[in-house]
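Researcher: Let's continue the batch. This sequence belongs to Major tail protein, and it's 308 residues. Same format as the previous ones, please.
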Amino acid sequence: MENTDFYTLKDKNDKLLLAAINIAVLMKPYDGKHLELDDIVATDGSLKQLPEGWFSMGEIEKKAGVDLAPDMKVEGPEGYGSRGRRRDFITDESFTIDFTGQEARLNTMAAFYDLDVDSMLASQGRFFAKKRRAAKVPEYSTLLIGYDGAPGNEIYPIWYYPKTSMEKKGKQSLADSSSITWPMTLAAKDDAAYGSLFGFGIAGKGFTAELATEMGISMTSDAAAATKKITLPSGTSGGTWTLTVDGKTTEAIQWNATGEDVTSALSTVGSTATAAGTAGGPFTISGATNVSANGSSLTGGDTAIEIA
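Model: Same format as before. Here are the structure tokens for Major tail protein:
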């Protein structure tokens, strides 16, 4: 084995500092229907509109933030004269989500007060609803989407809880110097149909293959071999266009460039993706996950570049 030094072993990497500089808390009354990644994020990293029934809790209080608290209890037999447990058993596993809603949305108030919205009074100048008398604690599916990065290179940390229930409600303080807020804690519950307590992932156009590799995530062979077809607008006779692959944007590419020219442009900005095609395209882009193009500087026809 070769000798090395402390910092090589430590392998610090500032690129791997992720943050949720913004957060969306999304909920839906639990109905047994589950989301998969394809329901949340498109293959190019863009977010999708969620199915009917999902609602947003709006802006979340900055000071409180969103606290995620996973917990696990382990027990096991101990032998007389032995140190520590001889075998470990997970006897309890939990996950709580704690946040404070700032906006007076009906869904937020209904979740906090457990209101019977089916029997509420709502007319011009009046709203009133009673607490439900049902003994069962309301259950929800809950989705958290964080936001990091910059426009065009977004990174979305994603937490999905197929089944949660209201665990605790915080104190509401009424004062002339603050707005009314709705602090609440949700508890994740096991959902046999989903097969897991929760799921976590990362998506977005900023989640490039290079970043995934630095994180220790190996892209599947399908993602690594993914291809995209780029077609310039019909009638194009001049100008330039740019291509963005996994967050890397080329310099201006001539309208009559060949596949080799496009590959060279990608290589110049550090992309390992390749392009195949004759002068003016269409081009087949290989080895790319997220692909977009800008044809605003093309002339002779439309400027919308087709990507398939």
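Researcher: Any comment?
Model: The radius of gyration is 26 Å.
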